């Protein structure tokens, strides 16, 4: 008998994948964690029934979270990743030679533990000497930080469980305080097919705090609808005004300098969420 995993993305729609084996399942202090091997997507991390990352398509999300803000900032040295215990965003951050220190704050240490074991190509840089890993509450870490970071990336789950506070206006205000005077932040903000109201709310909240606010998209097939959004807030630097000389060669599978700008060209129904 075939075993299939289905993520119920709405009450009427889901995505399904054939499972070869289950590596681990555990109710952590914060969420239900499952690590499985799928026939199509390779190893897959699932939290509270939602696909977080897979070996096959992980590069899209991690590259777009990291490289858009890091190429926008002229000299990012200190970077914070909130969430992201799988280590994928950290891996991409470290490709930027200007980064002296990358801090990861993940509330659930089990995500880090099992990502290192079953997703080594994603989590492989978490032990890099340029990285500091803290198992802590990202919301509180932000609240205690003052002008500490050049770039902050919020790599959270969807706004349920431990991630609810990471989609609040107060959190974005705290991020502004934690950033230096020319700082930039980016957060994943779900998909426009099922979560249009969330995107609109986050965009308007960020716009009230940051002089430069932009929405951009990427195609991630294992995430709900496949069309994913990211909201960027910047105190000074505009991702649409990055000079060509800022872009340097690095190994990527999705992100390019051309795509950097193209990702901000939004379908009409998505652009309407920003007006």
Automatic annotation (TrEMBL):
It catalyses: S-adenosyl 3-(methylsulfanyl)propylamine + putrescine = S-methyl-5'-thioadenosine + spermidine + H(+). The active site is at 155 (proton acceptor). GO terms for cellular component: cytosol. InterPro entries: PABS (IPR030374), PABS_CS (IPR030373), SAM-dependent_MTases_sf (IPR029063), Spermi_synthase (IPR001045), Spermidine_synt_N (IPR035246), Spermidine_synt_N_sf (IPR037163). It holds the Pfam family Spermine_synt_N. One of its GO terms (biological process) is spermidine biosynthetic process. PANTHER family: SPERMIDINE SYNTHASE (PTHR11558:SF11), SPERMIDINE/SPERMINE SYNTHASE (PTHR11558). Homodimer or homotetramer. Catalyzes the irreversible transfer of a propylamine group from the amino donor S-adenosylmethioninamine (decarboxy-AdoMet) to putrescine (1,4-diaminobutane) to yield spermidine. Belongs to the spermidine/spermine synthase family. This is Polyamine aminopropyltransferase.
């Amino acid at each position: 008998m075939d075993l299939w995993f289905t993520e119920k993305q709405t009450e009427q729609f889901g995505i399904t994948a054939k499972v070869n084996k289950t590596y681990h399942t555990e109710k952590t202090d914060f969420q239900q964690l499952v690590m499985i091997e799928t026939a199509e997507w390779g190893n897959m991390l699932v939290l509270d029934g939602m696909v977080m990352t897979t070996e096959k398509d992980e590069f899209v999300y991690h590259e777009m979270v990291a490289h858009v803000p890091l190429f926008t900032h002229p000299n990012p040295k200190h970077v914070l990743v909130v969430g992201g215990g799988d280590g994928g965003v950290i891996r991409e951050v470290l490709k930027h030679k200007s980064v002296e220190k990358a801090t990861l704050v993940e509330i659930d240490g089990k995500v880090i533990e099992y990502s290192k074991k079953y997703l080594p190509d994603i989590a492989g840089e978490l032990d890099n000497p340029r990285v500091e890993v803290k198992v802590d509450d990202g919301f509180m870490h932000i609240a205690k930080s003052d002008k500490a970071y050049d770039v902050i990336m919020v790599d959270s789950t969807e706004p349920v469980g431990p991630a609810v506070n990471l989609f609040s206006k107060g959190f974005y205000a705290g991020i502004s305080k934690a950033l230096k005077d020319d700082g930039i932040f980016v957060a994943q903000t779900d998909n426009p097919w099922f979560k249009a109201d969330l995107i609109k709310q986050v965009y308007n909240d960020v716009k009230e705090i940051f002089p430069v606010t932009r929405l951009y998209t990427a195609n991630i097939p294992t995430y709900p609808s496949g069309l994913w959004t990211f909201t960027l807030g910047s105190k000074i630097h505009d991702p649409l005004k990055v000079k060509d000389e800022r872009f340097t060669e690095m190994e990527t599978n999705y992100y390019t300098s051309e795509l950097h700008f193209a990702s901000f060209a939004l379908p009409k129904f998505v652009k309407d969420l920003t007006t």
